[in-house]
Design brief:
The chain is mostly helical. The chain has a domain at about 55-125. It is built from five helices and two strands. The protein is globular.
Length: about 130
Amino acid sequence: MSDDPFGHKLEDEDAPKYNPIQYTKILKEEYPTIYNGYMAVMEEQLELFSKKHLDYGMHNITAGTSLGTQEEREFALSGLWYRMSDKINRWKNLLINNRGPQNETIIDTFQDICNYAIIAQLVERKLWKK
């Protein structure tokens, strides 16, 4: 057995320094409310993403490209940055002006930011395809 950076005992000496399965298991055991909440939020995120993706399709991200080149991926990532920036600025404006949202809830804003961030990871990893 060995210790991870947080002092937890790891089962396998040969395990890599970062083993997400073991950390997830530790989180689930030591912080069950956070773990269960996180999993519920991620299921909601996936359902929301699925609904919106079926409405929008592939090309709202690809802008008609195949994302086959670094330049095309950077263009798509720039578009995602603008979308996230709009959402973050909305959140910031609500906080600064101490206003409640008039249209979508703040949770909707958090969900959109999260889903855009996941889409950006898919684009960067060349996984934004059927």
